[in-house]
Design goal:
9 strands; alpha/beta; single chain; Rossmann fold; 193 residues; seven-stranded mixed beta sheet
């Protein structure tokens, strides 16, 4: 028999903040995806129902006031999970910003540099009305290249990027400095690069 709970897990009282949950649950993996990179694996945050709900709530909170947002754009791949969680909590749609070659049909493409190479992102245009207010989310803010390319794609598609939110920000890589002239940025924690 299924037990009902008096509240949703992410709305039940907890003693840890969203930032503390991210700090405690994030796994650090050295030399991934290549030697010299210290990878922050946030997937344990996603598998914990309290942590996942709390971080989605915390990431969206600064952007849910005023005009708010009408959709959430998740950057491949971990940004998809965050976008889905936030969108479900706020009852808005999700846009998926994919790596090149993953979307069928007409796409907009944007190349960018990241801390360990070059890449390209794509977005299908025409999914939402022109002027839709979109919150951009990802797991980690490093150099800001991925996020900046995503904002450019959204603008080219006719949407308005209202903010960028991520779980972690890597110190010393100037991602925030790259993005803040374009839109507000919020992160739940800072860690060494």
């Amino acid at each position: 028999m299924r037990t009902t709970h008096p509240c949703l897990p992410y709305r039940c009282p907890v003693t840890e903040t969203a930032a503390a949950l991210v700090e405690r649950l994030t796994a650090v993996v050295p030399d991934f995806p290549k030697p010299g990179i210290l990878f922050r694996d946030v997937t344990p945050v996603f598998s914990d129902p309290v942590a996942f709900g709390r971080v989605c709530e915390a990431l969206a909170a600064p952007f849910a006031i005023g005009g708010g947002f009408q959709a959430v754009a998740g950057i491949e791949a971990r940004g998809f999970a965050l976008a889905g969680g936030i969108a479900a909590q706020h009852q808005v749609g999700v846009l998926t910003v994919r790596k090149a070659g993953k979307l069928p049909g007409e796409v907009l493409s944007e190349q960018y540099a990241l801390e360990y190479g070059e890449a390209e992102l794509e977005l299908r245009p025409g999914q939402l009305p022109q002027g839709t207010r979109v919150l951009v989310v990802d797991d980690v803010l490093a150099t800001g290249g991925t996020a900046a390319a995503t904002v450019t794609l959204l603008e080219r598609a006719g949407y308005e990027a209202v903010g960028f939110a991520s779980l972690l920000e890597l110190d010393g890589l100037a991602g925030r400095e790259r993005l803040e002239p374009r839109l507000p940025v919020t992160t739940l924690g800072r860690v060494p690069a």
